[in-house]
């Protein structure tokens, strides 16, 4: 599957034209082409590489999944690799890889699966038709803007999830306590993955904004500066969320330790209370004569001691917040 667009003089001329016509359109230096390939075969990717003069190493990176976010420069083009992210309800992180070849007249995007919302990128282009005459930097801006906005939204969702965990920290329900533990570990795992996606984007956008590259024109510079600002905020926010998750996990352990200490105090207090009647009845159960032996007086004395000392211990432990 392939999608395509043709711009000429800053205006959208055609959409979804046959790939075989690309050579004819490239002959006109005023044209701008976008070509999107969804999980292309090696043969098709090689044909596109020959059509646009793409480097074989860049084609190899585009065909293989698991590339790190980066911007590689070649003689005739640049190669970009990035990830769109989605935070799932349980706190898990789902990533979708996208690669892009940036030439003087074209932007070729390669998607490994349909998890990437390319329609949103197209909508961003349609919302800014006045920038279409700025060349390939216009198309690349829509792509990067979509990716970075997704990163920022994912960080915000994780921040909300951490706040919900903080509210559950002091819950007494055992089910919620286990939920805090599971969600905290899941969020920490997701933040590690998000950090690997977000942090390299700083260098990518910063490299694109360098004057010597020639991708970002003067009118596009404020828009790329806005993207760079969002990248920095997302990266800093991600780092702070890592500290927050670590704090939640440490607090949870402290709360569990305090609860265990409280339980141990209660168990110890009741054991001390139960030990009193056990000791007294054991003493009066001796088979030797003692004051009150074989007399009602002994029964009354032992019962009074049991009740009196038990009540006294209960009051003392309750006053010291042990019960």
Automatic annotation (TrEMBL):
Q: Which GO terms describe its molecular function?
A: cobalt ion binding; cobalt ion transmembrane transporter activity; magnesium ion binding; magnesium ion transmembrane transporter activity
A Pfam match is: CorA
Entry keyword annotation includes Membrane = yes
Main localization (coarse): membrane
User: Coiled-coil stretches, from where to where?
Assistant: none
Q: Tell whether Membrane is among the UniProt keywords.
A: yes
Record Gene3D superfamilies: CorA soluble domain-like (3.30.460.20), Magnesium transport protein CorA, transmembrane region (1.20.58.340)
Task: Give TM segment ranges.
Answer: 267-285, 297-317
Instruction: State the compartments where it is located.
Output: Cell membrane
A single GO CC term for this protein reads:
plasma membrane
Give the membrane topology, semicolon-separated if more than one. Answer: Multi-pass membrane protein
Q: What keywords tag this UniProt record?
A: Cell membrane, Membrane, Transmembrane, Transmembrane helix, Transport
Q: Which family does it belong to?
A: Belongs to the CorA metal ion transporter (MIT) (TC 1.A.35) family.
Kindly provide the name given to this protein in its UniProt entry.
Magnesium and cobalt transporter CorA
Q: Which species does the entry assign this protein to?
A: Streptomyces xiamenensis
């Amino acid at each position: 599957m392939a999608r395509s667009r043709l711009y000429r003089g800053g205006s959208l001329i055609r959409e979804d034209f046959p790939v075989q016509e690309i050579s004819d359109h490239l002959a006109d230096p005023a044209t701008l082409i976008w070509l999107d390939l969804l999980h292309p075969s090696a043969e098709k990717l090689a044909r596109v590489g020959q059509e646009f003069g793409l480097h074989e190493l860049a084609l190899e990176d585009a065909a293989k999944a698991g590339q790190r976010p980066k911007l590689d420069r070649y003689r005739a083009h640049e190669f970009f690799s990035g990830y769109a992210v989605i935070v799932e309800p349980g706190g898990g992180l789902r990533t979708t890889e996208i690669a892009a070849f940036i030439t003087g007249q074209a932007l070729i995007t390669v998607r490994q699966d349909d998890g990437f919302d390319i329609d949103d990128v197209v909508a961003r282009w349609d919302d800014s038709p006045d920038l279409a005459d700025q060349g390939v930097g216009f198309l690349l801006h829509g792509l990067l803007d979509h990716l970075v906005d997704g990163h920022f939204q994912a960080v915000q969702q994780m921040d909300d999830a951490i706040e919900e965990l903080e509210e559950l920290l002091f819950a007494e329900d055992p089910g919620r306590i286990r939920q805090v533990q599971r969600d905290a570990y899941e969020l920490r795992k997701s933040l590690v993955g998000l950090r690997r996606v977000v942090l390299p984007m700083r260098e990518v956008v910063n490299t694109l904004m360098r004057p010597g590259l020639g991708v970002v024109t003067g009118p596009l510079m404020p828009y790329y500066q806005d993207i760079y600002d969002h990248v920095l905020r997302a990266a800093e926010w991600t780092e702070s969320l890592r500290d927050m998750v670590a704090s939640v996990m440490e607090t949870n352990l402290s709360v569990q330790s305090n609860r265990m200490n409280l339980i141990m105090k209660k168990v110890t207090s009741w054991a001390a209370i139960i030990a009193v009647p056990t000791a007294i009845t054991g003493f009066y159960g001796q088979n030797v004569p003692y004051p009150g032996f074989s007399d009602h007086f002994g029964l009354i004395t032992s019962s009074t001691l049991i009740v009196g000392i038990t009540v006294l211990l209960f009051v003392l432990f309750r006053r010291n917040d042990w019960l």
